[in-house]
Amino acid sequence: MKDDEIDMPDSARGAAIDWWLRHNDGPLSEKEQAEFAAWLAQDEANAAAFEKISGVCGFMATRLPGARPRRKSRRSLKKAAAVATVVAAAFTIFFDDLALFLRADHVTGIGETKLLTLEDGSRVELDARSAVAIHYGDGQRRLALLSGEAWFEVAPDPLRPFVVEAAGGTATALGTAFDVAVEKSGARVTVARHRVAVASGGKNAIVEEGQQSAFVENAATQPSKPVNVERATAWRRGRLIFENRPLGEVVEALGRYHRGYVYFLDTALRARSVSGVFRTDDPLAALDEIESALGLHATYLSNYLIILRE
Which residue, of 97, 98, 246, 251, has the greatest Cβ tally within 10 A? Predict the structure, then answer.
């Protein structure tokens, strides 16, 4: 389950889909033609978005089950546009995953976790859809968390610091156990035992036991704050716990455990607030609970392609 994203602004993508639907409903009126021309001229991103959506949707709209070669209803065309957008996103995600696979020493798939024991006795637990590269040498123990989330239990070795790189920053162990999660724009570090030195954007910060800090790539580390470590690392026990988190973020987290895509007809839905405890072994049940709690409607084209709307 993945919150679909095409490499274009949300506003341009949504408007491009709408204009594509209008064109396929029949000839535009003079007023609509003028509005369409003005929209295209308003921003180069609009023209690029319409060209991409038209190319993909034009192919998909005539290839859905039961599709007819002539005009369709706006509802069926909108479904075709949704499918086309998600298919394009799927290709992007596939190539991103392939690039990670080539860079990583260890990778976990959807719904898979993995426990690694390194040569020095340190242990790394990888969450689903995570990737790590290991760079051990005489003077350092360095790992790169390329994606996802991982729990680290560090074996003592004063002569070789244990450093985790993530999202342009680093977390250096000053004790034994901590968690690092790569997010869309940065990373967060949660300390379970002792301390961790976090460096990002040219600034350093010490995160104490029972605290969490985060940073955006190339920006200074945020001040650490107290955190419930058991809740923050609930993925290790097969649970995901959210408290007032954006729906888009929740869907992305659930996407580590289910092979499929979620498409939001209204991108504003991604900002809706979600709280709850969900099992990682049944992400579709989690989505059902969210759908009910937020008063949303889900259309299942299959278990692997879900359209969310109000």
Answer: 251
Exposed e or buried b per residue across 154-171, where buried means at least 16 C-beta atoms within 10 angstroms of its C-beta = bbeeeebbbbbbbbebbb
State the alpha helices, DSSP H only, in 4-125. 10-25, 30-42, 44-60, 74-103
Please, what is the Cα angle at 126 between 168 and 142, to 5 degrees? Answer: 45
CATH 3.40.50.10310 assigned to domain 106-229? The reply is no
Neighbour order of strands in the sheet with 106-107: 106-107, 131-136, 141-147, 162-166, 169-173, 196-200, 203-207
* CATH class of the structural domain 238-309: alpha beta
pTM greater than 0.90: no
Write out pLDDT tens, residues 62-118.
Answer: 333 333 333 444 455 555 555 555 555 555 554 456 666 678 999 998 899 999 999
| CATH 2.60.120.1440 location in the chain | 106-229
Long-range CB pairs of 112-120 (<8 Å, 24+ gap) are: 113/235, 113/236, 118/155, 120/155, 120/157, 120/160
